Amino acid sequence: MPGKRTTLEKLWKIKGFKPNVNQREAILHINGPLFLTAGPGSGKTRVLLWRTLNLIVFNDVKPEEIFLSTFTEKAALQLKEGLRNLLGLVTNETGKPYDISKMSVGTVHSICQSLIIDRRFSEAGTRKHPPVLMDSLSQYFKIYNKKFWQELWNAGGFRDEEAAHYAITTYFLGKEINSRHVAVTECIALFNRFSEENLNASSIKTNDETLKALLKMYQHYRDSLQINTYTKEVDFSLLQQEAFNTIEKFAGSGNVFKHLIIDEFQDTNAIQEKLYFALSKGSKNICVVGDDDQALYRFRGATVENLVEFEQRCHDNIGIKPKRIDLDINYRSRKNIVDLYTHFIIQADWKNPKKTGTHFRVYDKVIKANSKDTRPSVIVSTKDRAENVYVEIAQLVLDLKQKGKIHDYNQCAVLFPFLKDSTRVEGFTAAFENLNIPVYAPRANSFIEVDEAKAVFGLFLKIFDRPHYGNTGSQSIIKFRNWMIECIGIADNLMKEDRMLKEYVNDKKNEVALALADYNLLLAVVKKKRWDLKTPFKLAMIRDFSDVPKLSQKAKKNLTNSYFKKLIEAKERDGSPFSIEYIVARTTSLDWTVLDLFYQLNGFRHFRDMFLLAEDGTDEGPVCNLGLLSQYLSRFMDQYGTLLTASFLHEDKFVKVFFASYVYALYRLGESEYEDADDPFPKGRVPFLTIHQSKGLEFPVVILGAVYKREKPPDKKEIIIRDLLNKEGEPLDRISQFDTMRMFYVALSRAQNLLVLPRYTHGSAATEIFKEIFENYPLCTIPDFDIQQMPIAENARQDAGKSYSYTSDYLQYTKCPRHYMIFKKYGFVPSRSQTMLFGSLVHKTIEDLHHLLIHERKSLQYDN
Amino acid sequence: MITDKEIEKRLEEMFAQNYELLKLEGGHALTEAGQKDAFNQVLYYFRKLKEVAAKVTDTEVKLTLPDQKTPGNRSFTIEGIVDIVREDDEVWMYDIKTHDPFYVESNKHLYEKQLNVYAYIWENLRGNQLDHTAVISTVLPDALKEAAIANDGNRIQKELAHWKPVINIPYHEKNVKDTIYDFGLVVDNIEKHCFAPPPATVLDGKISGTNSKFATRICRNCDARFSCSSYREYAIKFQKGTTANFKQYYNDYGTDGEQEEFINASINLNKINIIPELPH
Question: Is the fold of A8-130+237-327 the same as that of A376-446+682-789?
Fold first, then answer.
């Protein structure tokens, strides 16, 4: 009851947590910089949570004085939920409430956004204008836009577009490709890297002509983002720079936070490191956590050296060497698995030849298994042709299931370096499906290749028609055209099977045609009367429009209803009358939007069945995809307008913008193989994941689909940056091997009970190091493996318990479980009804209002 | 001293910022009509309840009840957010809702249970004083909405005066255990994937204590009704619908007023007037 005191030990006991010596030391450490190396499965998240709790509850640090960042939204959510849960426990013990809503906890991007407008970083405590954030798709659309792209290559001094494409693609890829898409994608990657390195384009000197041009283009891009004195657009990379500039400008920045805790530090980039050191200059309390052996994000500008050299860099930047603690006991895997991956990682030569005695990894940490189970837990297939290896492994999975060693196929993951267009993925899929084991490979294709997307887009194409390209030599456009034709074929079949659907599609098509006809009639009136479309509309003009012969009933009704008249009168009275153009658009707009259309199409049998499958939990896959589709449609509407007016439909404008531009971009950008995976995975299926997606996850059984990755030449961007900024780092000719080692290290360390490696005889069979291991390291083969000795998989651990809200969960579910499922669980974006976003927006703004009023009242009292 | 006009200006800014932020976090947008509707709720909350808003002492207080167990033995945490007004000797707890006041009024028992749980956390676990509890529904009544759209100052004043957004919830601290048990049942159902809609008979029936049908009040505001087996059954069976009027079934965009309002809020010529281009 209230007033009671508690201790960490008491709380640990309640939670059943028994920290080991190093974990305990890390949790209790509160003064000065701290360097936590955290091996796979070493209980890192728990340590972070308890350390934060210790600061707040037992050391009087206010939540808003803590900065706690991590890499993904999902990890951030876990930290927030975990912390609320533990603090709630404390409150119930002691009666003292804790509020972490003002705490800077989240991904670095979300924290940067709030830092920029944080009053604590300005002299007068004023709130600043936040920049408008473009996500990566918006950034692509901005630069890809023909007009803007022309501005850019003009700024770069290129003769024409083709010359720009040739120069840029040759520079980055070593071959001439006349493709705006390719040139733009390369430029975006370079621009982002420039921003993350905080590079000042105008001060850079270089003799390389192409690079000179690219720097000018970058400068032009940067200038274009300042929309007016107050408003600035930023992309994700510039957001971080903007935050860094904000805190650099304010002298007291190093003391705003008393503690910084940075998770996944191996994946930080240059500007983030600057930001963190700047924020901890005063307090000196910076705690970084990470594992250099699991660094995966170099291609996004991450610099693993930030972690490997943290002890030195911390000293150089804030003047103190950090205390280092190794979280080195693995609680996840059986002993043989831990032994294998610790052996694996040291097979590469990590020595730094330039500085004797130093390495390109944190060399002296030793990961130990907590498990004493020394029975075989890493097994290899028989050495054979790929087809036979697939079959042998699929059979093993079937046996594991039948002998009860796994309860569900989703406890067994197959990991690949990449999924898209992989013959290994195809081979394994066939082998599993032969045994009637379904697989789940969401990222094997681009999103718009999934059946649900093809069906919906196919019906859209039937209603609006498709863009026509004539004779084109572009392979990419030909592929996209074929995709559209395939979608139309699917739609034709659906309409054949469902007469009502056919009728519905025809009705919609007719409505489009009617709106266009009305539009032309009204424009003819405008022309005849010699009106200017931009001039004010007068009430008297209603008749001129509504009396046009052949005008549709619907348009007439739109023009003559009393509501409309009142609106026009009110506008005229206000002195802000509508333009003629506006009235034409309004009169000829369709009743429905693309999202309305989507929801109505969902009402036909083909789609209805998908909802039924989800309602009792039989199969969630199709409805998940429909939900995603609704999000893409709402994005489109947000960018290009909600309403389908005839002026938008006119001259194929809509068709071009929607299909030829928007959907085409989705098609080409595809879904990245680095996206987070949805976890937990659908029941009843073997998940196929990229190794990047598997980061941070664990599975009772892990199968590596491939143990080979082609070495790549060093990334051009890396070469440019090192050259321009005089930076050192891992030798350029070693980077590819290092990255491959780290990637497979992540894969090997995901397994809890059993790790299965394939031994192929042909093709890209294995990296040299895997070959060496297959030759000399003692490993059991599948035929010799005794399944009986293997422990039974535990069901996914119940975490701290999910949070449910009374309003948005309990009440919503009670009102209608299906509505809850669709909008809350699967994230459908509603067209007309209220959303979660709606509620959050109102609440957040009312909260801001209250803060404003509280602040006003306080300053008034102060004045008095 | 900041004037009301200045505050309303600030509201506009804060709203725009919050929208950008939340849009980014959630990865999706609101329609323009939705944005306007949301802003009006905030604006008229301020205009109507200035007195209350100015007295709030603790805003968006997060209440949590962790480590609960469902009947199916799953752990869960109950969360809620309230605003607190401490004034002289009295403490009020407000729960601001963006849903239909009509639904609140007709389901008072649900809100009673909810506020009882909140009160339990606030008083018993945290040892605070509490004297009154109420729900504030920020949804504007139709008449006020129409006045706002027509931008008719006199009518707005009149309708604003009629509006009763504060719904007092009788507050007695009992049945907390039962409520948590019920809550646990719902959590179990969610985790077990039970998401079937209520049967068509419920849709055809009146919402308890009201004169409105579930189907008209709830379903017609749900975009997913077209794919819903219960709504379909209701529309066919109870509405004597046949395949002949399935067009009406789909061509249902609410009342004429609602549709006008939607179109009115959604027209954005600047967005449409962009120059389209074919990629090459």
Answer: yes
Q: Where would I find the H helices in B56-167?
A: 101-106, 108-119, 142-150, 153-162
A651-696 pLDDT tens trace:
888 999 899 888 998 888 765 544 555 556 777 889 999 999 898 8
Q: What is the DSSP letter of A254?
A: G
Q: How far apart are alpha carbons A94 and A3 in whole angstroms?
A: 5
Nearest to A820 among B26, B195, B272 (CB): B195
CA dist list (Å): B96 to A33, A49, B42, B99, B268: 43, 31, 11, 9, 31
What is the model's pLDDT at position B26? 62
Q: How far apart are CA A605 and CA B172, in angstroms?
A: 49
CA distances (Å), origin A104, targets A65, A68, A79, A506: 8, 6, 12, 53
Separation in Å, CA A595 to CA A165, A259, A273, B30: 37, 46, 42, 12
**Cβ(B38)–Cβ(B31) under 8 Å?**
no
Q: What is the CA radius of gyration of chain B?
A: 22
What is the reported pLDDT for A356?
87
For the beta carbon of residue A834, count every other beta carbon within 10 angstroms.
20
pTM of the model: 0.81
For residue A2, what pLDDT is reported?
47
Q: Is B15 on the interface with A (CB under 8 A)?
A: yes
Please tell me the CATH code under which domain A8-130+237-327 is placed.
3.40.50.300
Q: How many CB atoms lie within 10 A of CB A595?
A: 22
Around Cβ B263, how many Cβ atoms within 10 Å?
22
- Number of neighbouring beta carbons within 10 Å of residue A638: 19
- Domains of chain A, residue spans: 8-130+237-327, 132-231, 376-446+682-789, 477-590+643-669, 806-863
Q: Using one digit for the tens of pLDDT, what is the confidence trace for A55-106?
A: 999 999 999 999 999 988 888 888 988 898 888 888 878 878 787 877 999 9
CB proximity under 8 Å: A 799-838 to B: 800-807, 809-811, 813-823, 825, 827-838
**For a pLDDT cut of 70, what percent of chain A falls above it?**
96
Phi, psi (deg, nearest 5) at residue B18: -60, -40
Q: How many CA atoms lie within 13 A of A252 on its CB side?
A: 11
Q: Which architecture, in CATH terms, is A376-446+682-789?
A: 3-Layer(aba) Sandwich (3.40)
Rounded Cα–Cα distance for residues A174 and A562 (Å):
66
Q: Which of B230, B115, B137, B80 is nearest to A817 (CA)?
A: B230
Q: What residues of A are in contact with residue B275 (Cβ under 8 Å)?
A: 147
Q: What residues of chain B, 222 to 261, have a C-beta less than 8 Å from chain A?
A: 222-224, 226-230, 232, 243, 246-247, 249-251, 253-254, 256-257, 259-260
- Token digits of residue A436: 């009637």
Paired residues of A703 in beta bridges: A414, A756
Angle, CA of B146, B150 and B154, to the nearest 5°? 90
Q: What does each C-alpha distance from A501 to A508, A618, B251 come to in angstroms? A: 11, 26, 14
| A576 vs B: CB within 8 A | no
Task: Say if residue A290's pLDDT is above 80.
Answer: yes
Closest CA to A133 of A240, A270, A273, A279: A240
DSSP-derived letter for residue B241 is -
Cα torsion at A810, A811, A813, A816 (round to 10°)?
170
Q: Which two tokens stand for residue B242?
A: 């046949």
Nearest in space to B256 (alpha carbons), one of A512, A513, A583, A557? A557
The contacts of residue A488 (CB under 8 Å, 6+ apart) are A458, A461, A462, A466
Beta-strand pair A329-330/A368-369: parallel
